[in-house]
Amino acid sequence: MGVEGCAKIIKYLLFVFNLLFFISGCGILALGITLNVNNGGFATLLPSVPFLNAANLCIAVGVIVMVVGFVGCCGAIKENGCMLLIFFFLLLLIFVLEIVAGILGFVYQSQVSDYVESDLITGLQKYDTEKGLQSAWDRLQSDLQCCGVDGAADWAMNSSFPATQFPDSCCREYAIDCGKTVGYTGAWKDGCAEILLTYLEDNIYYVGAVCIAIGIFELFGIALSMFLYCQVKNDSQVV
């Protein structure tokens, strides 16, 4: 015997909630794959702060959301107490992890700049030895219109760029071997570390707003799942 009355409404509300949750997971996963194809190399530059890579983050979150949404959908439509309880704890775990991640991000935000600069310097020194780093650096400098960590002079730390030379991706007007032209002064003036950090700081507020909205959405799902679980459990005891 299925649930009746108000519980039946909750059942379908929870099903719709999880269907939307599952669809949003598909969308996040698709976004992550797209970002990974277009901008995947950026994560190579910052191994100490991999969570800053939006592509990998979206892929991981998308898969988790899809799994949780699927469990919730099945639990709601089948009125399965075990699946509803699993969904409840999974959603609660995600909510708690979001809070922990937010606290850790706030506590360690002052150290991010140190990690970013350190990783960029390491990547710059290995520019000509690892193809992934070379591609990531070229994309970073071209897209953000910057050069080096703090400026074009930083490329002197790499033995492949003596004197005032630098990669062609530093050139404001790109041309093959433009960065190796003696006396060339057309490099981007700004360093990449400062621009990258500014970009992250400008977008952190949007990320925070989205996380708060998702958290409220999750609390709604947590309440619905627990209500339906209790109702299913009570009905089974009556029978």
**Global geometry:** elongated
Mean pLDDT: 82
Number of helices: 7
The percent range for helix content is over 70%
List the helices and strands and how they pair.
Layout: H1 6-39, H2 42-45, H3 54-78, H4 81-107, H5 109-125, H6 131-144, H7 192-238
Helix pairs in contact: 1-3, 1-7, 3-4, 4-7
Write a compact overview of the structure shown.
By secondary structure, this protein is mostly helical.
Task: Give a written overview of the molecule.
Helix 3 packs antiparallel against helix 4 (81-107). The chain contains 7 helices and no strands. It has 239 residues and is mainly α. The radius of gyration is 25 Å and the shape is elongated.
Could you list some keywords that capture this structure?
single chain, 239 residues, mainly alpha, 70% helix
